[in-house]
Design goal:
eight-stranded parallel sheet; 19-stranded mixed sheet; 1 helix; mainly beta; globular; 3% helix
Length: 362
C-alpha cells in the first residue's frame, strides 16, 4: 500500500530513489451504448488550455455529412470526406446517433488538413471489427509528400466533440496498435472526445494503444489531448497489450483536463519480454517509450486503470534519460497491479526528470 503523496510546490528532480470492463472483440460482439457513458473530460479539471490546443473553427466546413437525419449520415460519405481532406461536420438532426464503419477512414497526405467535429452528438464506431481512423505520412499508399516523411508539418488531424467506440485493430499486422486511431507524422490533436471499449493487439512487448497509437510528430511537438475521456466508468475502458488508453514511441504529449479510468494493459512479461512470455502488460492508462520526450498532465485524473506488468497508471521510459514527466494540478490514484514503481502507479527510471506541482499521487 502506498502512502499519499501531495506536492504543492515544484519538484524538479534528478533523483535516485529506489479493474476494468470485460474484454471486447470476443466471438460475440456487443455494441457499446455511448449514451450510458460518462461525459468528456475530468469534471474537476480546470487548468487553462493554450490556444493551439483548443478546438478548431468549423463554422465554414468543407464537407457536411447528412441532410438532417441520422440515416442520411452514411459511413461511406464519412470515409470519402476524410480521404478528400478538409473540415468535416455532420447534419444528422438534434439527437445523438452512431455511425458504424466497416473499414478505417484514412487520411491522404496530399490533401488538406482534416478536422472532424461531431458537434457533441456523433459517435463513430468500429463495430468491434475495424480501426476507425488512420494517418501515416510514411505510408506510400497514402501518398508520400516529402523525403522526410517522419518529420513533416502536414497533414494535421484533429478530432473534436466526438465519441469513438468499439474500434478494433487486432487484425492489423503492418501498422498494429491504435484500436480507434493510429497516427504517424504531421500533427494530431484530440479535443472534447470520448473513447469507449476500443481494443488493439492483446499481446506483445511494444504494441499498444487501446484507443490511440502515435509516432513521429513534427519537430517533436506534442500531441494535445484536451477535455477528453478514455474509459471513465466500469465497462467502458479501452484495452491493449500496452497503453490501455494511449501509446507512443518517441512522442511528447500535453494532456489537459482529461480522465483516464478503467483502461487495461493485458499483455504479460513487459518490454523486453521476459523469457517464456509474449511481452506487454505495461501502462494501464498511458504508455510512453523513447528518448527525448515529455509527458505533461494538467488537471487530469488517472484512476482504476490496471496492468499485468508495469505502470498501472503510467509507463514512462526515456531510454537515454533525456525525457521529462510533468504532472500539474492532477490526481493519480487507485490504479491496480504491476511492479517497478518509482512513484505510486508510475513506472520509470529512478533518475528520470520529473516536475510535480500541486498534485496527488497515491
Amino acid at each position: 500500500m502506498y502512502s499519499r503523496l501531495l506536492v504543492t510546490s515544484t519538484l524538479i528532480a534528478m533523483l535516485a530513489c529506489g479493474g476494468g470492463g470485460s474484454e471486447k472483440a470476443s466471438s460475440t460482439y456487443l455494441p457499446t451504448n455511448p449514451q450510458n457513458g460518462p461525459p468528456a473530460g475530468n469534471p474537476n479539471g480546470l487548468f487553462p488550455v493554450p490556444l493551439e490546443a483548443r478546438a478548431e473553427d468549423v463554422s465554414s466546413p468543407t464537407h457536411v455529412i447528412g441532410t438532417g437525419t441520422p440515416e442520411s449520415c452514411t459511413a461511406e460519405a464519412f470515409i470519402q470526406a476524410v480521404a478528400q481532406g478538409g473540415k468535416i461536420t455532420f447534419n444528422g438532426g438534434s439527437k445523438p446517433f452512431t455511425l458504424t464503419l466497416n473499414r478505417p477512414a484514412k487520411v491522404f497526405n496530399d490533401k488538406p488538413d482534416v478536422v472532424i467535429d461531431g458537434g457533441g452528438l456523433v459517435t463513430i464506431s468500429g463495430g468491434g471489427a475495424t480501426r476507425i481512423l488512420y494517418m501515416n505520412t510514411c505510408d506510400p499508399d497514402q501518398v508520400w509528400t516529402t523525403n522526410h516523411c517522419q518529420d513533416q508539418d502536414r497533414p494535421r488531424l484533429t478530432v473534436q466533440n466526438l465519441t469513438l467506440i468499439d474500434g478494433n485493430s487486432r487484425n492489423e499486422v503492418l501498422y498494429d496498435g491504435g484500436g480507434a486511431i493510429w497516427v504517424r507524422g504531421g500533427r494530431f490533436k484530440v479535443v472534447n472526445c470520448r473513447f469507449f471499449n476500443n481494443v488493439c493487439a492483446s499481446l506483445g512487448p511494444d504494441v499498444g494503444g487501446g484507443a490511440i497509437r502515435v509516432f513521429s510528430q513534427y519537430q517533436g511537438l506534442p500531441v494535445f489531448v484536451v477535455n477528453s475521456t478514455f474509459g471513465g466508468a466500469p465497462g467502458f475502458g479501452n484495452i491493449g497489450a500496452n497503453g490501455g488508453g494511449i501509446s507512443s514511441i518517441g512522442v511528447s504529449w500535453s494532456v489537459y483536463n482529461s480522465l483516464f479510468s478503467y483502461n487495461r494493459a493485458i499483455g504479460n512479461g513487459g518490454n523486453p519480454a521476459q523469457a517464456g512470455t509474449p511481452g506487454g502488460g505495461s501502462g494501464g492508462a498511458i504508455y510512453n517509450d523513447g528518448n527525448t520526450m515529455t509527458l505533461s498532465l494538467y488537471g487530469t485524473l488517472l484512476e482504476h486503470n490496471e496492468v499485468n506488468a508495469y505502470g498501472s497508471a503510467i509507463f514512462f521510459v526515456t531510454n537515454d534519460r533525456t525525457g521529462t514527466l510533468h504532472i500539474e494540478d492532477s490526481v493519480i490514484r487507485r490504479n491496480i497491479g504491476g511492479s517497478w514503481y518509482t512513484l505510486p502507479g508510475i513506472s520509470m527510471h529512478s533518475d528520470t526528470k520529473r516536475e510535480i506541482i500541486n498534485s496527488i499521487i497515491e
